[in-house]
């Protein structure tokens, strides 16, 4: 690596000017929207993750579910083993583009009260997930 390739920027500058692509996490497990709550919880436990990207039959992102949401549904009085992810997704479009600035994405997530937001390409395929830090 040469010095010309290395750029140091203060963290505050990165937060303001960085894009979602700079800070997103890998999409992680992607599951189909007809998966049941129990199966999704098992996938989540095996993957040791707090969220799953939900996709349609064409593999396009349709939403995101969190472990908190799945447990709340499972523990609810109206729960049946036939409830599918399409019925309970926490996050439904619009999603973030990888070119969206981090500041714009954070504002959108805070206004919609989201802890995580899928990042998708122009065709709707999941590229990653932006997770909002709770400490800010």
From TrEMBL:
It comes from the Bacteria. InterPro entries: CBS_dom, CBS_dom_sf, Diverse_CBS-Domain. Keywords: CBS domain. SUPFAM superfamilies: CBS-domain pair (SSF54631). Pfam families: CBS. The keyword Plastid does not apply. Residues 24-82 form the CBS domain. The keyword Protease does not apply. This is CBS domain-containing protein. It comes from Streptomyces prasinosporus.
